[in-house]
Automatic annotation (TrEMBL):
Any one GO CC term of the record: nucleus
UniProt xrefs under InterPro entries: AMPK_gamma/SDS23_families, CBS_dom, CBS_dom_sf
Family annotation (Pfam families): CBS
Family designation: Belongs to the 5'-AMP-activated protein kinase gamma subunit family.
Biased composition (Acidic residues): 384-397
Protein name: 5'-AMP-activated protein kinase subunit gamma-1
Source species, domain of life: Eukaryota
A molecular function (GO) term: protein kinase binding
Biased composition (Basic and acidic residues): 374-383
Keyword vocabulary terms for this entry: CBS domain, Kinase, Repeat, Transferase
Length: 397
């Protein structure tokens, strides 16, 4: 029995009756479809996960993320013999901002400070953990991802002793595309909802005012502050005419870790080495339909789209959160007769304290502080990261 079969055997399978989705309101089709499925239904058949020791120096930990082309990694405490959290891009941003603004600290402390020390200083080690069990429904996973503003949701087995994979917004949307949206044309018991053929302007999916933007001469520290204050993971870069010429993403900041050039955050963003960057942001226009936008997200593994006008000036932003909120959470809330905030905090994944502690033995290489855990027996790894599932690229975002 392989890993996937072994894990599935511990989940109560849901044998549901045939459903004729043509008989229900179109806005309830997607939530109803997901409600009948559990998180374990989207578990990858194989993959690997990079685990970092909390005894690693901060600079080496983030360098490990860059080297392994990932946006986050679970943290392992040898002293406690358990997982104690997650390390993410946002944590790196917060580390840099902390030392830049600190009167007592020096950014050079990154050279000799461990993750464990950083966790104690910031109090993150006591941060509440957001997680879900594999037997819980995909609608519940969607609600947590959107309403809690997280990009990555650890999925545990029912015993709570192990994290079997990490749910992401992109993984969820991709599953919907493959298992439901692609059936709209060929299936007789489900019709394509009319809103799929409406434009994003008609549906108002996304943010279309007060978009945070920068230019090539914006200082790195100012961009980092915008990431945090505006709760975004990407900033359109404009030229002198106000047209979009690039997008500065959180992942771009990892160049500072790779090259160890984080001592001067007053340099302009155009000075950063973007060879480590991945294109996770595309563009669209107001007159494109929701169906087209979803296809762009899934086919190109985008995390967000910049809405541009005829002059290529930024007119809005659409994130995975916006799409999933419209498709799943808003109609689900109406079905459950509850309410949800209109504002989506796109970027709250900063953790250094993310996954539930697990009683699983991990063999961490003491010389590097890095371990690789493999699941499944497939030859083609299915990354746990929202990043190189390509993710790219995480947010996501």
């Amino acid at each position: 029995m392989n890993f996937r079969q072994e894990m599935l055997s511990s989940f109560p399978l849901r044998r549901t009756e045939h459903v004729d989705y043509t008989k229900m309101p179109e806005e309830e089709v997607i939530p109803s479809f997901l409600r009948r499925l559990s998180c374990d239904d989207v578990m990858p058949t194989s993959g690997k996960i990079v685990v970092l020791s909390v005894d690693l120096l901060v600079k080496n930990a983030f360098n490990a993320l860059v080297t392994n082309d990932i946006r986050s990694a679970p943290l392992w405490s040898t002293a406690e013999m358990k997982f104690v959290g997650m390390l993410t891009i946002t944590d790196f941003v917060n580390v840099l901002r902390h030392y830049y603004n600190s009167r007592t600290g020096d950014i050079k402390d990154i050279e000799n400070q461990t993750i464990a020390t950083w966790r104690r200083i910031t109090g993150i080690e006591n941060k509440p953990i957001i997680r879900i069990k594999g037997s819980e429904s995909l609608t519940q996973a969607a609600k947590i991802l959107i309403q809690q503003g997280v990009h990555r949701l650890p999925v545990q087995d029912d015993s709570g002793n192990a994290v079997v994979f990490v749910m992401t917004k992109r993984r969820l949307l991709q599953y919907l595309q493959e298992k439901l949206f692609s059936k709209f044309v060929e299936s007789k018991n489900v019709n394509m909802p009319s809103f799929f053929t409406k434009t994003i302007q008609e549906l108002q999916v996304g943010t279309f005012e007060d978009i945070a933007v920068i230019n090539e001469d914006t200082k790195v520290i100012d961009a980092l502050n915008l990431f945090v204050s505006r709760k975004v993971s990407a900033l359109p870069v404009l030229d002198d005419k106000g047209s979009v010429i690039d997008v500065f993403q959180k992942f771009d900041v990892f160049a500072l870790a790779k090259n160890q050039t984080y001592h001067d955050l007053d340099i302009p963003i155009k000075s950063l080495d973007k060879s480590y960057s991945r294109d996770t942001t595309g563009t669209c226009t107001f007159d494109e339909t929701l169906e087209t936008v979803i296809t762009k997200f899934v086919s190109n593994k985008f995390h967000r789209l910049v809405v541009v006008d005829k002059n290529y000036a930024p007119a809005g932003m659409i994130s995975l959160s916006d799409v999933l909120k419209f498709l799943v959470v808003q109609p689900l809330v109406k079905m459950e007769n509850s309410s949800v905030s209109r504002t989506i905090p796109e970027d709250s994944e900063g953790a250094v304290g993310g996954t539930e502690a697990e009683e699983v033995e991990v063999d961490v290489d003491l010389s590097t502080g890095v371990a690789h855990m493999k699941i499944g027996d497939g030859n083609k790894p299915d990354s746990f990261e929202e990043t190189p599932e390509t993710e790219t690229p995480p947010d996501d975002e």
